[in-house]
Amino acid sequence: MPPSTDRFTSSGRRIPPIQCLLTFEALARLRSVTQTAEELCVTPSAVSHRVKQLEQLLGTRLFGRADFSLTTEGSAYLSQVREGLTALQRFPGTASAPGKRRLKLAVTPTFARAILIPRLRQFTDTYPEIDLALQVSIPLLDVVAEDADLVVRFGPGHYADMEHVEIARDVVTPLASPAFVREHGPFERPEDLEHVPLLRSPLEPWRSWFAACKLDWPAPTEGSQFNDIGLMCDAAAAGMGVALVRLKLGAPWLDQGTLVRLFDIQADSPHAHYLCWRTGTMDRWECAAFAEWLRRAMA
């Protein structure tokens, strides 16, 4: 009897045909039978047949809906398939590190300094196979030095160009240095801020806090202005004036004692931090892994 042409792993399970794996990866990426067929130079019916063959071999559904979104099992299997295809594309003697994935993350400066960096060791310990490349994005303007896989934006949350999820919302309250308080205080009521320099930032408008205090004051139009909360905190710590700061972002300065709260009154910030990505990005397992880790870390 001639030997079978089927190939098995050491556990006895059949290895899926390579054309089925290539078709699955392309369809998961393109989400179009027609485009997948064009890329692989086959007919659309061949695409459907290969995916069905792969699902029958695995005993599970890989795609859940007509838009070719992946099932939970399909998403997990896609990461394995891509790792395997990447390994097959790597020739002997190449210098690339096996299994390493590069993830480019753009993040606002003070969020990175106060929130992300202190927690980042947890991520790198959990996912040593992912190399992170961090770059700076400018809050509200969303300026990024180069294309990033994931972007932490700060603003109102109306991002029609990208998918997004809110990851951090905070309250604001006035902070100043202890020396500034000694020189210009005491600060017993919000009205005591009337004749002291207020540091300004478009990221945290003073009117939100004035409204919480039931003060009908206009937003200050004079004084030093900053488009980065970290720089504004440093300026306040140097005694330049009073800064309106989110408590989570101001935590490093508060913990070190270089800034102190002036009042118990706080107000909701009109802005929040959002994790943003282009459609299809979460099909890459390293991006999905970081998004899930960040969600848990912020919770």
From TrEMBL:
**InterPro entries under this entry?**
LysR-type_TF_proteobact-type, LysR_HTH_N, LysR_subst-bd, WH-like_DNA-bd_sf, WH_DNA-bd_sf
Presence of the UniProt keyword Transcription regulation in the record: yes
Alphabetized, the UniProt keywords read: DNA-binding, Transcription, Transcription regulation
The record's PROSITE patterns line, in alphabetical order, gives: HTH_LYSR
- Give start and end of each HTH lysR-type domain: 16-71
Q: Does the keyword Nucleotidyltransferase apply?
A: no
Which family is this protein grouped under?
Belongs to the LysR transcriptional regulatory family.
Name it. Answer: LysR family glycine cleavage system transcriptional activator
Source organism of the structure: Paracidovorax wautersii
